[in-house]
Design goal:
This is Crp/Fnr family transcriptional regulator. The protein is of the alpha+beta class and about 200 residues long. The chain has 8 helices and 8 strands.
């Protein structure tokens, strides 16, 4: 694995006006590693706060209820909400926890959350990029959740296929059904019904 090449690939996705020292700092402080499909790489119980940037591959964020059941709550790829992590500040009163599992083989850039904070304070271009990316993430999550909660399963599936059809090429129907709160058989029936229209 060529770490420098992968860091350069990450840097190409950033605005051109970010401080050139940012790249050097990434090489010093970043850790690039590979994960096999199905690996859990973030669990809320971990004390260390890390940021992970998906360079290649995809993962699923799951919540775990008090009975130990997992529910998919978001999908991430190298091109769709690639930044994930264990960044909750205080969730001690929560009745659910979360974890991240790789959906396919992944290449990930790992950074301490302090790295991001340091560069937000140090470089206005990076701070602007983080702000804009955060707003886009929140917009995506809110839009998806609003549609999931506000539409029938059939209408939501139509919308999801139209707006985020790539998810169906990268993620298993089982996980998409779990995300929607339906069984895989029900999802299959909905797809068939939509195709017949």
């Amino acid at each position: 694995m060529d770490t420098k090449k992968l860091i350069n690939e990450f840097v190409r996705r950033l605005p051109m006006d970010i401080d050139p020292l940012f790249k050097e700092s990434l090489l010093e402080d970043g850790n690039i590693f590979e994960l096999p499909k199905g690996a859990t790489f973030v669990y809320e119980g971990e004390k260390q706060q890390k940021i992970y940037y998906t360079i290649k591959g995809s993962c699923i964020r799951f919540i775990i209820n008090p009975n130990g059941e997992e529910r998919a709550v978001m999908f991430h790829t190298e091109d769709f909400m690639p930044m994930v992590g264990n960044m909750y500040i205080d969730s001690k009163d929560s009745l659910v926890t979360f974890l991240l599992k790789s959906n396919e083989d992944m290449t990930v850039l790992e950074l301490d959350s302090s790295f991001g904070l340091k560069w937000i304070n140090k470089d206005h271009a990076f701070a602007r990029f983080v702000f804009q990316t955060s707003i886009q993430y929140l917009s995506n999550v809110n839009q998806i959740q609003n549609h999931l909660l506000g539409l029938s399963s059939e209408d939501f599936l139509c919308w999801l296929l139209k707006r985020y059809g790539f998810l169906f090429q990268r993620f298993r129907s089982k996980d998409i059904a779990n995300f929607m709160g339906v069984t895989p058989i029900w999802l299959s029936n909905l797809k068939r019904k939509i195709a017949e229209k």
